[in-house]
Amino acid sequence: MVDWRQHLEEVLEEDRKLLTKLENSLRFETNPKEQEKLKFQINELKQTINERQAEQASLSASENPKPSSPPPPSLLSPPSPSPSSLPPAESRLKQFRKVSQNGVG
Questions:
Q1: pLDDT grade, residue 14 (50/70/90)?
Q2: What is the pTM of this model?
């Protein structure tokens, strides 16, 4: 049986390969509508990768608890938007469809 951490790593690797393919397709696409579709897919995939990486990090943290000393302020990165502050995938998809139908970028 494959453990969840290993499965997550395999899925992340597949997502990264797909992201590379989509970004390469975008470089050579000349149709503006297709460019917008590719950009949307790339952004969705990047968000999915970030969510999976966060899940992976939380799994690692729960399995390997570390001392609770905070990192030096110089190593702290700016806060990223929490998944709860982002619109759900369904509303992003509706927005994409609206943009695609209207031809607005």
A1: very high
A2: 0.58
